[in-house]
Amino acid sequence: MREVRFKVPLMFTLLFLALSGILYLSLLARADRVLYQLELSNGIKGGEAVRNFLDHQARQLDLLCLDWASWDQMYHFVEGRMESFERQNLSYESLENAEVSHGALFRRDLTVVWHGKPEGRIRSVVPCAPEELTKLRETVIRAERYGYARGLTVMSDRILMVSARQVKDTAMGLPYNGWLVLARPLASAGELRRVLPSLVDVRPSQVAMEPKVVTVPVSPSVMETRVPLMDITGRWSMEARLRVDRWIAMGLRELMGMVLVGIAMLGVSLGTAIFLWHRTSISQPLEEMRRRISRMISEGGLRPLEAPSEELESVVGLANLLIKHCTTMERRLIGENRRIREILDGMDLLVALCTTSGDVTFANRAMRDLFDSLEPLVGRKIWEIGDVEDRERIRDRFLATAEGAPQLIRVHLREKRTSMVMNMSHVHRVGGDGEVLVLCRRSSAHIPPGIFA
């Protein structure tokens, strides 16, 4: 009873907490999937914003390149008819605010007319390195089909914005005769972050990238979006990294954690309430019922029980039905035993009922008249009715009868100056060890001469 008193509330509490935990984990997993899709969508939008901003910056350089390439002097300089143009117009002094880092003039056959880059705060111009000149020439090759090109390129592990335009005489309306290529470094991540707060950095990629935005979790509170960038030659050779704060996910986790704590407290409270209710309404009343029934069994006299609580009315009703049935059977059994003993008392035969250990529990009137002269027969051993020399033989036969084998024995009662035939048989009782029925018939025939001398 005590184990049930603790097991029922404890198992309910554990089951409630287990189901609540499973529901919590499933809801959290669902929320994580939905938030990840939202963050992935935001990362893709952020990547598009980075690409659009960089394209806007390249467009500004392209407009500057267009202004320069439209000068008539530039066309004549490509033709070789203006020797002083380099000194006057390509000194980068007019482009000081544009932060141009590289410039080059190519003829239509891609031969170099002039190239250079500023050094020392645009006070002097030095020639471009061969690999830098090769990058600028690749821009011209890219622009040959459309007449212009703009975009990003990587030069000496630096990202540059580059623009190329055809050089032509606008006054005469002549076809183009060359190419002008300008480049300037991309602004630092700190400066770009003023426009794009989530931007971490923009850097060249060591390996070829796939043309799709990738968003990966870095920590429970931060996700990183990697945006591939295409250079002017059509290769995905750069990447921009964006930082996405998962403040919604963190807030949701905190909220779900509070919900879980609330569910746990609710489960403990319900378990405590069920424990108290079970103890006051079920376990203690059942324990009191058990004590009452035990007392009634030990003292005798079964009596109906009263329901200690509404929850146990059906149990008490069933117990009262059993008690009523047992009382009826008890009265019936007592009446039957009384009638049997009255019948046995009226018989001429000597009848005794004994336990399997030999104690006499009942003796009829004829038996008592013969053996109750000195002390009552009931309570004595059955073999004590014989003479001393016959008692061991009677006891052995009686114990064999108690084991289930009927016995018939004749004994002489010298003190009573008679003999007696004892018929012993085992009588089974439901729920007990049974009894041994001893039937005795007195006989004086065929007594050996001198046996009572």
Task: Give me some keywords for this one.
24% strand, six-stranded antiparallel sheet, 15 strands, single chain, 453 residues, alpha+beta, 45% helix, rod-shaped, five-stranded antiparallel sheet, 9 helices
List the helices and strands and how they pair.
Layout: H1 2-69, H2 72-79, H3 85-89, E1 102-107, E2 112-119, E3 124-126, H4 130-143, E4 148-155, E5 158-167, E6 178-185, H5 189-192, E7 199-204, E8 214-219, E9 222-230, E10 236-245, H6 247-299, H7 313-345, E11 350-354, E12 360-363, H8 365-371, H9 391-402, E13 407-413, E14 418-427, E15 435-443
Antiparallel strand pairs: 1-2, 1-6, 2-3, 4-5, 5-6, 7-10, 8-9, 9-10, 11-12, 11-15, 13-14, 14-15
Helix pairs in contact: 1-6
What does this structure look like?
This protein is of the alpha+beta class and 453 residues long. 45% of the residues lie in helices and 24% in strands. The chain contains 9 helices and 15 strands. The strands form 3 sheets. A 6-stranded antiparallel sheet has the order 3-2-1-6-5-4, sandwiched between helices. A hairpin with a 4-residue loop joins strand 2 (112-119) and strand 3. 22% of the residues are buried.
Mean pLDDT, to the nearest integer, reads 78
- Write down the secondary-structure element order: HHHEEEHEEEHEEEEHHEEHHEEE
Unreliable stretches: none
Strand content: 15-25%
How many helical stretches? 9
Shape: rod-shaped
Q: Which bin fits the share of residues in helices?
A: 40-55%
How widely separated are the two ends? 71 Å
Radius of gyration: 59 Å
- Count of distinct strands: 15
Q: Structural class given helices, strands, pairing?
A: alpha+beta
Largest beta-sheet characterization: 6 strands, antiparallel
Strands of the widest sheet, in order across it, are: 3-2-1-6-5-4
